[in-house]
Amino acid sequence: MMKFKRYIKRVFIFLFILATFLYLNNSSLFTKTRNQSPLLLAHRGMAQTFPMEGIMNDTCTAERIYPPEHPYLENTIPSMEAAFQAGADIVELDIKPTKDGQFAVFHDWTLDCRTNADGMVKDYTMAELKKMDIGYGYTADNGKTFPFRGKGIGLMPSLDEVLKHFPEGSFLIHIKSTDEDEGVQLASYLSKLPKNHLEQLTVYGDDSPVSSVKKQLPDLRVMSMASLKSCLLPYIGIGWTGIIPGACRNTQLHIPEKYAPLLWGFPNKFLNRMDSVNTRVILVAGDGGWSEGFDSTQDLKRLPQNYNGGIWTNRIDVIAPLLKKGD
User: Fold this and answer.
1) CB of 128 closer than 8 Å to CB of 112
2) What does the CA dihedral 308, 314, 315, 317 come to, rounded to 10 degrees?
3) Is the pLDDT of residue 52 over 60?
4) DSSP string, 255-286
5) Nearest to residue 165, comparing CAs of 80, 102, 252, 227?
6) What is the mean pLDDT of residues 140-167?
7) Which of 12, 221, 275, 317 is the most exposed place for a label (fewest CB within 10 A)?
8) Alpha helices in the chain (DSSP H)
9) Cα(101)–Cα(98) distance, rounded to whole angstroms?
10) What distance in Å separates the CA atoms of residue 151 and residue 73, rounded to the nearest whole number?
11) Residue 319 class from Cβ within 10 Å (0-12 exposed, 13-18 middle, 19+ buried)?
C-alpha cells in the first residue's frame, strides 16, 4: 500500500513538473517582447468587396459587390499603388498564363464574369487581354447599373509590368492553376529576377505548381496546403518542446484564426519561433475559407491582444489606419 502511495505521489509530481514546463515553455507571457506593427497583407490590392455568404467555386463575385466606396478594381496597378499608399506591407495578386507565354494578373478562371469577353485567359495574348474591359461585369444592384463599365479597358497588367512598376514591392503571387507545368513556367520567369527582388516575393496556390516552383527555387518562400500541413501537423505534435520541424523553415504560413489557438505558444511565442527560422505567419479570418479577412473594426476585436503578426485583409483602406496609428 505504501509503495502504491509513493508511486501515485511520483506520478503527480511528474505531471506537475510536465504541466509547469508546458506552461513556461509555451506561454507568451514569458517571451521576447514584440513591438513592431502588424504585417498587413492586402488581398488583391484595393478591391471591391462582396458578401461571402453562399459563395461557390463558380460564383461570379463581380455581380454581387457592395456599393463602391472607392474607384479601384482588383489586381490592377492603380489598386496596388493605392494599397501600398494605404499602408499595405504586402499585396496579393493572382496570375494566369497567356497564349503568348506571359502571365496576366487576373483572378478568375474565365473572362465572362468581369470582362466583356468570353473564354479563358490562356486563349488570348497579353495584347488582346489589354483591349478588354475588366470593369464590365461589376454591379451592386443586380444589373441595374454597372459603375465600372468602360473604366477597365487596358487595366489588366502582366506580372512583368507589375514587378517592374514596383521594383521594391513585396508581393504574394497566387498561381491560379493545378498544372505543375505552369509552376515550372513561373519558376523560370522568377529565376531571372535579381536576388533582392526575389526575396520580396512569395508564391502560393495548389500543391502541384507550388511544388514545381519550390524545386527550381528552393530558397523562395512558398505556401500550399501540402507545405502548410507538413509544417503544422508535426508542430502540433512536438512544438510543446520548443523544437521547430524542418518543414517550417523558410516558408509562409496562412493560419485560420479558428485553429490558431491550437498551436503551441500562439501568439507571441509561436511568432518568435517562426521568425527564428525565417517563416512568415499570416492570420486569416474564420476557418480560412474563401479568402476571409479582417475587414472591419469588429473583426479586429477578435485578434489576440497586441497581436503583431501578419494579417490578411480585403479592406486595407479600413484596417491600416486602425492598426498603424503610431507609425
Assistant:
1) no
2) 80
3) yes
4) EETTTGGGSTTTTHHHHHHHHHTT-EEEEEST
5) 80
6) 97
7) 12
8) 2-26, 77-86, 126-130, 159-165, 180-190, 195-198, 207-216, 225-238, 268-276, 297-300, 316-323
9) 5
10) 9
11) buried
In angstroms, the CA 50 to CA 70 distance is 13
Count CA within 13 A, CB hemisphere, residue 204.
19
pLDDT in tens, 281-300: 999 998 877 778 999 999 99
pLDDT at 306 over 60: yes
d(CA 176, CA 122): 12
> 167 is written with which cell numbers?
521594383
Instruction: Please state, in angstroms and rounded to a whole number, the distance separating the CA atoms of residues 317 and 100.
Output: 35
1: which DSSP letter? Answer: -
**Which whole number is the average pLDDT over 195-203?**
94
SS3 label, residue 292:
coil
* Nearby residues of 160 by Cβ (< 8 Å), 6 or more positions away: 102, 103, 189
**pLDDT for 102-136, tens place per residue?**
999 999 989 999 999 999 999 999 999 999 999 99
How far apart CA 295 and CA 41 sit, in angstroms, is 11
DSSP calls for 3-33: HHHHHHHHHHHHHHHHHHHHHHHH-GGGS--
Distance between CA atoms of 292 and 217, rounded to whole angstroms?
Answer: 29
Instruction: Check: CB of residue 251 under 8 Å from CB of residue 244.
Output: no
Q: Which residues of 146-182 are buried (b: 16+ CB within 10 A; e: fewer)?
A: bbbeeebbebbbbbebbbeebeebbbbbbbbbeebeb
pTM of the model: 0.92
* DSSP secondary structure letters along 184-216: HHHHHHHTTS-HHHHTTEEEEE-HHHHHHHHHH
Is the torsion defined by CA of 272, 84, 107, 160 positive or negative?
negative
